[in-house]
């Protein structure tokens, strides 16, 4: 197999993209790529989607040859295509009878050893496995491709792909699938001069795929840090690769993502993990991931999606649909710390993944603010590009008011940097010795250099600690409230996302301006927590192959651990809590929602006629009962409602649980941790058999939130003495 060409893309991409895009702008300056969504595929045997697409595109453009216009077809799981269109052509297609909607293709963002042990899914007898079923489980990974040469994706010991597999290997002539990575497709645009391959030239896709389902690989480390065995949640599972992201396009195109859903559903994957999102939550009919995930849900495929990395600001969660399992990020009990020893003997402790060993040698320290001759003081203090004077910083440790610009110090000859960071709960990888300090620690260093004639310091190699408080929500993890549907709590769950070591692409440097190349790297983000939950979902599915996506989601949510509430409005950061894989296998009760339930939910949101078809792909008419349904009455494992901040309120949630535990058992309700009045009717019920259902209502009332509080929460716990089925109840002010 030829060496992956990822490094070529990284180095040449900007130039090639500039040339290609400049040329395209001259030829197509009034055109852009639009997704022409046509809903469900007609049931007619003689229907030929590609011919139909060609016909209506020709009619709209007035061109007989549409080869240069057509970007891709959707023809396996739903109907439609993507094409280059002018605004007038878009309007023509939007008014065509067979077309449901026409919306622009956008570019979305990617949202990455000890983590699996931390959540309880350890190797050994305690974590039981169903090897044969796990080996028949297929995880579809929509990301930046994969490094097929990684040990994490070796097929040693694997038999042939499952018989249900209907996919293909179209990774390129330089990409070979095997019995572990059983399929590969590439949806990124072709750029002249750049190899078009499913090989990962970002590192992100390899990292997420191995986190979910990578083989167990011993003696993995980041230059000695985090040494141990790297493995996925379901190491025996198969991986299907759907490359939708590339550095050449600076992200992931939505027309490619929708095509990946089309194929993944048709390929018969068991679940989908997608660590990708927009800058903000979108209405469902504009959300490509929500549309694709709805079709996946209808076929029994769970979609697990990253919540986003825009925390700690509120209402920043980007994955908002209830049929998507939305994952926030938390830490584990392991962390990397990097110390700086000052000339006066004081030691300050910061965060970074620093594998460089300066042997404790102390170097002169200079503040960026005083190491510039051509910038204002504030810009120089931030070590802004173009501000530092090489003569003043070369061979020294540079103090920077922002960790974002430390590479500028390296570029100008610094041996190390001490920087201020607003996020000190996450360690980043840098291309030279750096420690990122909290404000108070940074001020200690400033005070030292301002009071010392010739300040010196040493930046030490990182240490690994295993006693930090955990799980705690990561500061970067996006929060609720849900910006689109206020009465649906998002994110749903949290999982390890901070400082995760997993497979990487050797052709991609681990940080900006880095010259190192490695097979495994450390990344942080909800991109990393998302495949953890995908791995847990796949693990549960090996025990319950017939469970629907909502049943799996419910099992994980209602058995979650409580999360340390060290953040503003923690209810909107942690969702139901922190994933607990072993408990989720035996949840006792589940909240189940079907396609018809989600359609009723949409009807209650005034999705009718054509708007409803935008999501479901089907022509349906909402009944009167569906149109009156309230979003908070969707049979969801959490319960959320907006209420007046200062006025009395009373809201009722209607729920139904299904018994997946033992027969002849009795459950009793208990409400904990609330200043609210919560009434559960009935508060006790008996179940004679498996799959028996029981309905109940939860009424929450109060005289107002009061006391300046904007949110109040509690927990409803159903228990039979063995199972503890926990659901968060959250009410919050409409004017929060």
Please, could you describe this protein's structure?
By secondary structure, this protein is an alpha/beta fold. It has five domains: 32-104, 2-Layer Sandwich (Alpha-Beta Plaits); 115-332 and 473-584, Rossmann fold; 334-463, Glucose Oxidase, domain 1 (3-Layer(bba) Sandwich); 594-629, no CATH class; 634-733, Immunoglobulin-like. It has 19 helices and 36 strands. The strands form eight sheets. Strands 17, 18, 19, 20, 21, 22, 23 and 24 form an eight-stranded mixed β-sheet that branches. The chain has a seven-stranded parallel β-sheet with strand order 7-10-6-13-15-16-25, with helices on both faces. Helix 6 (204-213) packs parallel to helix 13 (526-543). It is globular and about 80 Å long.
Q: How much helix is in the residues?
A: 10-25%
Low-confidence stretches: 1-27
Pairing-aware structural class of the strands and helices? Answer: alpha/beta
Number of helices: 19
Gross geometry: globular
Stated plainly, the CATH topology of the largest domain is called Rossmann fold
Signal peptide: 1-24
GO molecular function: serine-type endopeptidase activity
Active site: 143 (charge relay system), 204 (charge relay system), 527 (charge relay system)
Keywords: Glycoprotein, Hydrolase, Protease, Serine protease, Signal
Question: Top keywords for this entry?
Answer:
736 residues; alpha/beta; Alpha-Beta Plaits; Rossmann fold; Glucose Oxidase, domain 1; 19 helices; disordered N terminus; glycoprotein; serine-type endopeptidase activity; S8pro/Inhibitor_I9
């Amino acid at each position: 197999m030829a060496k992956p060409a990822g490094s070529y893309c990284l180095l040449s991409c900007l130039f090639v993209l500039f040339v290609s895009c400049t040329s395209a702008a001259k030829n197509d300056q009034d055109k852009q790529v639009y997704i022409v969504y046509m809903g469900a595929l007609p049931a007619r045997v003689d229907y030929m989607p590609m011919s139909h697409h060609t016909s209506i595109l020709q009619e709209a453009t007035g061109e007989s040859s549409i080869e240069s216009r057509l970007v891709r077809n959707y023809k396996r799981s739903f109907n439609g295509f993507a094409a280059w269109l002018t605004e007038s052509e878009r309007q023509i297609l939007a008014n065509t009878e067979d077309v449901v909607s026409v919306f622009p293709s956008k570019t979305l963002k990617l949202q990455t050893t000890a983590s699996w042990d931390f959540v309880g899914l350890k190797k050994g007898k305690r974590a039981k496995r169903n090897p044969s079923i796990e080996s028949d489980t297929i995880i579809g990974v929509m990301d930046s491709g994969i490094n097929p040469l990684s040990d994490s994706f070796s097929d040693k010991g694997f038999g042939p792909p499952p018989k249900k597999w209907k996919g293909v290997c179209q990774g390129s002539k330089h990409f070979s699938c095997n019995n572990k990575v059983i399929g590969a497709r590439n949806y990124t645009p072709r750029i002249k001069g750049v190899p078009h391959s499913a090989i990962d030239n970002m590192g992100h896709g390899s990292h997420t795929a191995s986190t979910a389902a990578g083989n167990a690989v011993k003696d993995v480390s980041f230059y000695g840090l985090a040494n141990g065995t790297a493995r996925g949640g379901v190491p025996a599972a198969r991986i299907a690769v759907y490359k939708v992201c590339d550095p050449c396009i600076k992200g992931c195109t939505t027309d490619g993502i929708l095509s990946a859903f089309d194929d993944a559903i048709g390929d018969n994957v068991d679940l989908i993990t997608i660590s990708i999102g927009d800058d903000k939550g979108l209405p469902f009919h504009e959300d490509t991931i929500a549309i694709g995930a709805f079709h996946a849900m209808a076929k029994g495929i769970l979609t697990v999606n990253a919540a986003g990395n825009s925390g700690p600001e509120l209402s920043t969660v980007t994955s908002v649909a209830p049929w998507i399992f939305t994952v926030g990020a938390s830490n584990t009990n392991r962390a990397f710390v990097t110390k700086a020893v000052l000339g006066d003997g004081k030691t300050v402790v910061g965060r970074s993944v620093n594998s460089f060993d300066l042997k404790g040698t102390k170097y002169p320290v200079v503040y960026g603010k005083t190491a510039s001759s051509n910038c204002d003081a504030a810009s120089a203090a931030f070590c802004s590009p173009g501000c530092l004077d090489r003569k003043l910083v070369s061979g020294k440790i540079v103090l920077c008011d922002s960790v974002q610009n430390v590479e500028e110090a390296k570029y100008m000859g610094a041996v190390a940097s001490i920087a201020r960071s607003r996020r000190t709960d996450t360690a980043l990888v840098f291309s030279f010795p750096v420690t990122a300090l909290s404000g108070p620690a940074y001020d200690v260093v400033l005070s030292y250099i301002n009071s010392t004639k010739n300040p010196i310091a040493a930046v030490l190699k990182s240490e690994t600690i295993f006693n930090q408080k955990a799980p705690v929500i990561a500061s970067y993890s996006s929060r609720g409230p849900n910006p689109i549907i206020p009465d649906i709590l998002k994110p749903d769950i949290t999982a390890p996302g901070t400082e995760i070591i997993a497979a990487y692409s050797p052709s991609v440097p681990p940080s900006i301006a880095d010259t190192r190349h490695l097979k495994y790297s450390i990344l942080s983000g909800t991109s990393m927590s998302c495949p953890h939950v995908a791995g847990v979902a796949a693990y549960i599915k090996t025990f319950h192959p017939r469970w629907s996506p909502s049943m799996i989601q419910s099992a994980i949510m209602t058995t979650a651990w409580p999360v340390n509430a060290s953040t503003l409005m923690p209810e909107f950061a942690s969702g139901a809590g922190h994933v607990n894989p072993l408990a989720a296998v035996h949840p006792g009760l589940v909240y189940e929602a079907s396609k018809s339930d989600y359609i009723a939910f949409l009807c209650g949101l005034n999705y009718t006629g054509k708007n409803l078809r935008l999501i479901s792909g089907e022509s349906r008419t909402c009944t009167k009962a569906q149109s009156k349904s309230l979003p908070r009455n969707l049979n969801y494992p959490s319960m959320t409602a907006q209420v007046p901040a200062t006025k009395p309120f009373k809201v009722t949630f209607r729920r139904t649980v299904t018994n997946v535990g033992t027969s002849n058992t009795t459950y009793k309700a208990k409400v904990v941790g609330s200043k609210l009045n919560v009434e559960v009717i009935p508060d006790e019920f008996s179940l004679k058999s498996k799959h028996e259902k029981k309905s109940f209502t939860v009424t929450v009332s109060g005289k107002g939130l009061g006391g300046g509080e904007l949110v109040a929460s509690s927990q409803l716990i159903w228990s039979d003495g063995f199972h503890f089925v926990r659901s968060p109840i959250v009410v919050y002010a409409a004017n929060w």
